[in-house]
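Re: the request from the purification team.
They wanted to know what the chain is likely to look like in 3D before they choose a buffer screen. I agreed to run a prediction and write the result into the notebook, where they can find it.
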Amino acid sequence: MKQTRKLFNWLIAGGVALAMVTNLAAQTVKERTGQVVRIKGDARYSTGNGQWQKLTVGTKLKSGALVQSAANSYVDIILGGVDYVPSRVAVGGALSYRPEAEQDVIRMWEDSVLGFDKLTTMNTGADEITDTQLDLRAGRILGMVKKMPAASRYEIKLPNGVAGIRGTIYRISAAGVVQVLSGAVVISWTGSDGSPMTQVVNAGEQFDLRTGQLSPMPHFEENALRSASGELHFTHQVPPKTVVVDQTTYYVSPTK
């Protein structure tokens, strides 16, 4: 009960703090980009103009972008605006990049549709405040969110609710099934009688919005989530060494 109350207080305080900072320093708000760092299979994206393009490793995504993954595919996206250099290494059939800093990471599973409604960052001088608003229209995503300042916001809109995330490893489906490996997720929705409903999902728990049931995450689900999240810890690739080949022609006198 105390933890639930603490999370609710955090949500209220965070919203107030974000509003105050936005009013005081709105001129410092900048676009925050997402960058595709790994693709297995196929995916496409749109920049909001209704035209679809093939998604490739290195593609940068801004507010308003919409990404769709194909069957038997997944896409890993890092949020943060840091440029990555391709490692030219294929691991498990997936082309990857080598990141240079800890970032928020999203994995879109197959047959998923994810909208990047808002990606902004604001430097207040003391903290970097981020505002991440995603729209999961279909499928499932896995996410890792680094620790954020109190005024930052990270929300995922679902067809039937909204999930607030903070410093968390989570997996969530458009149907409203939330699983949490670490941290906590607060999910809000409108009940059948029209009243607002809220549920806190803590580490090791899962919640099904369709049934309203909160339960411990099955061990096989927890292990699968742990394994998948481990793949999102990108590590530096050792760059290849440059070898200088001696192309000098040497003449040797013939011997008897």
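For the purification team: Confidence is low (pLDDT under 50) at residues 85-93, 95-101, 235-245.
Please add any questions underneath this entry.
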